[in-house]
Structures are given as C-alpha cells and as structure tokens.
Write a structure and sequence with these properties.
The complex is a heterodimer of chains A (about 250) and B (about 130). Chain A has nine helices and seven strands; from the N terminus they run E-E-H-E-E-E-E-E-H-H-H-H-H-H-H-H. Chain A is an alpha+beta fold and about 250 residues long. In chain A, the strands form two sheets. Chain A has a five-stranded mixed sheet with strand order 2-1-5-3-4. A two-stranded antiparallel sheet of chain A has the order 6-7. Classes of the chains: A alpha+beta (about 250), B mainly alpha (about 130).
Chain lengths: ~250, ~130
C-alpha cells in the first residue's frame, strides 16, 4: 500500500467566510518531497482553489515562507520525511494579516524596507562624478557587511519575532539588518539619515533580543546580531553627544 | 477584499520552546535585581552596627534563606550563561577578512567569569 501523509492547511476565503478554517488533505508520502511539493500536489490534483506564493523551489526567491508546525520555514527546503508519519500543519507566516489561504499581506514589510533607505547614500557634494569611476572597496571592507546583504526578503524573521507579532510598528529584523548592511558599507555615508528610523522608539530599542529571527533565517543573515550591533552604535552616539556636545564628525 | 488578522494570545510567550527560554532569561533579571537589593540591605545593616549585622548573618543561615539563595544562584547562572553565549552576536571582531570565531568571544567571557569567581572565592574563603 502506498504511504500517505496528512497536511492540515490554513484556509481563508474572504469571499466565502469571515474566519479561517483548517482543511486536511491526505497525499502520497515521498521521501524526496518538500512541503512545497506536497502543496503543489494538492493544488494540481486535489483542490485547485488553494492559494499560496512560490517561485524558485530552491531557496533563492524567498516566496514560499510559511509556518510549518508553528515554525517559520521556507517550504521548498522543509522535507516531509522530517515530520512523517505525523500530520503537518501549514499556516501563513505569523505576524502578518492573511490575504487568502497561505498568502499574507506584505505591504507593511515592503514599506519598512523602503523606509530605511536601502541604497548607497553620499553626503551632499561628495558624490563622485561618473567619469571618475567606481568607489573601490577592499575584500576586508566587503566582508564587514556581506553577511547582511544576503537577505532574500522571505520574512521568516518577522514571523519568528514575538515582538513584531505583538506590535506591528516595530521596524523589524530584516529591515534593520538591511540598514546595517548599508551603514557598514565603506562607500556609504547615510547612517545618520537611517538613524531617524533605526534609533527611533519603533526601531532597535523595541527588540528584546529573543534571537529567533536569526534562527529562522535561511541565509544566515543574523538579523538579531545586526540589531544588537546597531544598538551598540546608537549608544556610542548618545555618549559622544553627551560627552562632546560640541560635536565631532559622526561616524 | 478584507484581510484577516489572526489574534495574538497573551500566552504567546509560552507557545514555543525558544520563547519560553527567552522569557526565563528575562525573568532572571528579577532575581539578580533582588539580590542586589539584598546586598544593599547588608550595607545598611552594617551601618547600624555590628550587632544588627550579626543578626542578619544569623537570619541568612536559616533553611528558607539557603533555599532562596540556591534559587537565586540557579537563575543568576542561567542569566550569565545565556548572555555570555549571546556576546558573539554583539561583539563582532574582524581581523582582515576573517571574523574572530564566536567560541573565542564567548569563551573569553566565560574565562573572565571563572577568573573573577576564583579571585572572589579566594578573598572570601582564603582570608
């Protein structure tokens, strides 16, 4: 007899119902299948009404993040065999409103990404003319921020963060890690501008260092580390302002 | 089409093991803080004279006090260990293109902790 596994999937169809429900599907169990394969099987063979996001199937696009048994995971990298023979519960990423079934509303995240100005900023008058060529950077300078540049915007870190779940105004792990990625870039001079958001009440100081964002991150970006380092930077700024109110060049 | 916001229960902190371990770490601060108050109280009693101080020393030898001390010690150790383990995330040292490995940074903290504890033990027991 063919081995099967059950998937209990979060359903929310705003055109039909006010509240979400769970629907259980029994599908063939295959050792080489990931949760996304199972969901694709359901969509193709059992229930075409199921909605979810996915694209690359190889941990690059960051689209297929979902809660698998309450833990945020890229479903393309989460194997059924690690749960078999138990039932697997699949829900949309925690902390976000649900648009439909497993699809979340990501507007808040996109807004926050833009808010921290994720591009190289030069001080006025310090922008090099194009003829002078690129800003050079040593491998050591690249190594300073490279880890933080690996983010694929999958939002698993937000779904792992209990602070974000309780208070959606928190700027959140990925956005702060991205700000840190530019702040630590030797070519960038925009830290002061980003501090308005990063060092605000909704920024780094909301973080209580649960650390689960870094555990959830499929790209080892370590947003928790980025946030704590940003706290150290802001604290140093504060003491500098206190001890040297006449100022000095900000880092 | 209206989106659905899932309710967040007050028991969120109990919903996953890592959250529980985190909230215990937060809770340890209460015990560490309470112990600081106790030490301040010690100084206050010392100011009141030798007799008051001796009275407090005797009170601390009661079984209840010893149990409370053991509980506070357990929480203080949990507090220190969990925080020291997190130090590599905060203190990132880069030499050239390489980062100083996490175990060295955490290890340095543990070594300092051990060193200071030995000195304290020597001061208290040795003299």
């Amino acid at each position: 007899m063919e081995e099967t596994i059950e998937l209990e999937i979060f359903r929310y169809r705003p055109d039909q119902e006010d509240r979400p429900t769970f629907q259980t599907y029994e599908i063939p169990f295959r050792k080489d299948w990931v949760v996304l394969d199972a969901i694709n099987y359901i969509k193709d063979q059992i229930d075409g009404t199921l909605s979810y996001r996915w694209s690359c199937r190889m941990g690059v696009c960051g689209s297929c993040g979902m809660m698998v048994n309450g833990v945020p995971k890229l479903t393309c990298a989460t194997f059924l065999k690690d749960y078999y023979p138990d039932k697997i519960r699949v829900e949309p990423l925690a902390g976000f409103p649900v648009e439909r079934d497993l699809v979340i509303v990501m507007d808040d995240f996109i807004h926050k990404l833009k808010e921290i100005k994720p591009w190289i900023i030069r001080r006025e008058g310090e922008e090099k003319p194009i003829e002078e060529g690129e800003y050079l950077q040593s491998p050591a300078e690249l190594a300073e921020y490279k880890q933080y540049s690996m983010c694929i915007n999958c939002m698993l870190c937000y779904a792992a963060c209990p602070v974000y779940a309780l208070d959606n105004t928190f700027v959140g792990p990925a956005a702060i890690a991205l700000a840190q990625r530019y702040n630590m870039d030797s070519r960038d001079q925009g830290r002061e501008q980003r501090e308005e958001i990063i060092a605000s009440n909704e920024g780094i100081w909301e973080c209580t260092f649960v650390g689960e964002c870094s555990v959830a991150c499929p790209k080892s970006v370590d947003p928790a580390g980025a946030i704590q380092r940003a706290k150290v930077g802001s604290t140093i700024d504060w003491y500098k302002d206190l001890l040297m109110p006449w100022g000095g060049k900000k880092r | 089409m209206k989106s659905y916001r899932r309710p967040v229960p007050n028991t969120l902190w109990l919903s996953r093991r890592p959250y529980i371990l985190f909230i215990i770490r937060e809770l340890t601060a209460v015990f560490v803080g309470a112990y600081c108050v106790l030490l301040l109280f010690f100084i206050y009693k010392l100011g009141k004279g030798l007799e008051a101080y001796q009275g407090m020393l005797d009170a601390l030898k009661s079984p209840l006090s010893i149990i409370l001390h053991l509980i506070a010690l357990a929480f203080a150790i949990y507090h220190s260990v969990t925080w020291f383990n997190l130090t590599p995330k905060i203190m990132v040292l880069q030499i050239g293109e390489e980062r100083v490995p996490a175990f060295l940074i955490a290890g340095a903290n543990f070594a300092a902790w051990l060193g200071l504890s030995v000195i304290l033990a020597w001061v208290i027991i040795g003299v």
